[in-house]
Amino acid sequence: MTKQQYSATLSRPARAAVILGVPTSLVAVAALSYEPQRALGEAVGWGAGVAWLLPVAVIVCELVSTVVYFSAPRGRARRSAATGVLMAIGLSYGLSSTWHVLHPGNAPLPVTLAVSAVPNLVAALMLHIALTISGAAEVEPAEPQLEAQPPAALPAPELTAVCEEPAPLQEPLTPTRPRKTVSAKAEALAFLRKLPEGELPSAVELAAKFDRTDRWGRDVLAEFRAPQPTA
After folding, report:
1. CB under 8 Å, gap of 24 or more: what pairs does 11-18 form?
2. What is the pLDDT along the chain (231 residues), one digit of tens a residue?
3. Which of 34, 41, 82, 227 is the most exposed place for a label (fewest CB within 10 A)?
């Protein structure tokens, strides 16, 4: 069951407890970490106007690093986020424990150091619960790695010697206009002689019939109408 599926099985009272309890716990943790770190800032010479920024910066860094860690996918990104979480928690714990060491109470030193670590651990746990419920920390299962299978040996193709005569090269077929022969005028004159008198075509019609120019048609008609020399 994934974290998102687990979140879906929670009842409404459980969700309400998380929604109300996580912010309350984080506020209490921030307050517990705030005072010793602020006091430590003043102890090293910072004024009261800026000393409060030290715990704020540390707490925000710890919260953001924890959210990034639980939201990052597995792999290099998650390892980098884990480094940030450890550094943020260690920084917060170091500042708080330093203050308690410099101002010891009635408890022995090991007990003081252990109690100083509680707020940081609680903050990380609360953020983990909140992100688990919201489904933001779901990590997809890694895809199974398929073992590489060696490629099957393919049969070698059989080569057969085939001797064929090369096909004759065919000349490209390009449309060409029919050649005009020198007998075109003679054919035109013979055509005109076969026509009844008075049905001669015009020069344009004659030229179109023999695929010639209009001038050629006029010359043929002129030659046809010219009187024939007598023997």
Report:
1. 15/133, 18/129, 18/130, 18/133
2. 555 555 556 677 877 787 788 788 878 888 888 888 888 898 888 988 899 999 899 888 888 887 887 787 878 887 887 888 888 888 888 888 888 888 877 778 888 888 888 887 887 787 777 777 765 444 444 455 555 566 666 666 565 555 555 555 555 555 555 455 457 888 888 888 888 877 788 888 888 888 889 888 889 888 888 876 665
3. 227
DSSP 205: H
CB-based contacts of 223, cutoff 8 Å, min separation 6: 185, 189
Predicted TM-score of the model (pTM): 0.45
